[in-house]
Prior knowledge:
Elements: H1 23-46, H2 60-78, H3 97-116, H4 122-127, H5 131-139, H6 142-168, H7 181-200, H8 204-233, H9 237-244, H10 252-275, H11 284-306
Amino acid sequence: xxxxxxTRHNPQIDPFTTVWGWExxxxxxxxxxxxxMMIIAGYFLFKEKHKNSDSIANYIPLISIVFLSLGMGxxxxxxxxxxxxxxxxxxxxxSSPMSWGAWILILVYPLIIxxxxxxPPSFIVDRIPQVNKITDYINARPRLIQNxxxxxxxxxxxxxxxxxxxxxxxxxxxxWNTAILWVLFLISGLSTAAAFVHMIAKNxxxxxxxxxxxxGFIVVEMFVIALMLIGLATSxxxxxxxxxxxxxxxxTAPFWVFVVGMGLILPLVIxxxxxxxxxxHTPVAPIMVxxxxxxxxxxxxxxxxxxxxxxxxxx
Length: 315
């Protein structure tokens, strides 16, 4: 087989120049965060932790709609043929991640709205007073509320998984072509969501619970990152070289400094001290987790595009 020049030895290829711009990483980040917030809100509904007037579960739905709409707007900007996006909804291919994703992105809206209608924002009630009838109907049925919670957790999980599956099915990109990528994106989405929600939560007990949950998500995320890199480093030559992009290659410093160091390890230490009442809760750690999750998407997307088979060295 003819040898192909590896990017590692080709100075003409810029590892930080990618086909996709900022739109896809931002979409993946916001989609993952909304998925995490849906799971958190669904859990609060299912466990009936939403009954306090200051519960964060009453605010998550509106924030989720805003973030998801911004994410879909970002995705729309990346589309080359924007006028034909409606064609995604004229057919459904069970083997196509894009088909699944297109419908998941639409189906999560009714579930988020159902959650929001339990305690609708005042600006909606002022303009549409009839909403109060729907609110009374939902709140009078505890079983319905639990089902809304289950639906949010289920579709939130599907949304979080989809953001990773979308990339992992691309076999031509060795860095993405790993079965554990969806786990990484799901856990990262849960972590960034827990960080954001506990940063803005007014209820002290919820803030404490979410900080502890985020610590658990961070530990799991570090474990998943280790498994992903080990899996790549012990696979085919192309995937070994893909792993080397994060283990000595051009993406090593930003990945280990900004994602692992400042986005996971440091906030974990700060939040462990906070939940053990050694220091006061501070927004510093959640902000670092959120920024780390965003940078993770940018690095994975950029490095994945850089790690295609035409840039691999085959013998």
